[in-house]
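tool=predict chain=A
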Amino acid sequence: MLGSILIIEDHPVHAKLFGDMLRVHGHTSMVAATGSTGLILAQEMEPAVIVVDIKLPDVDGREVIARLRADPATRHIPVLAISAMADNGLQDDCTLAGADRFVSKPISLHAFTGAVTQLRDAPRWR
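tool=predict ok
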């Protein structure tokens, strides 16, 4: 396996689709349906990449990203932000919060797995 990916996504169909896309490319994945659960799992599992949906039921995805970046235990983990609301302002907000990449929904297999692979393989400071 190439590395574990944490998917923070509240929509079960999307979460399964993302997990299936990653599995085809040799990744294992874990899903958190809320931002709060995702933050806990990020510390526990130390994933290779974290995928964060921006619209979550408990905490805005941008806040999740900001908290990941503020925590010494998770700040080095690459973050891919995803959202169906794909305007430039949102992409800028995600970048300011600390996201490394942004992919808009609907997500193509190539764009999603390519972004995850690039983030996983990029050198990071711990």
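The beta strands are 4-8, 28-32, 49-53, 79-83, 101-104. Residues 92 and 101 are 10 Å apart (CA to CA).
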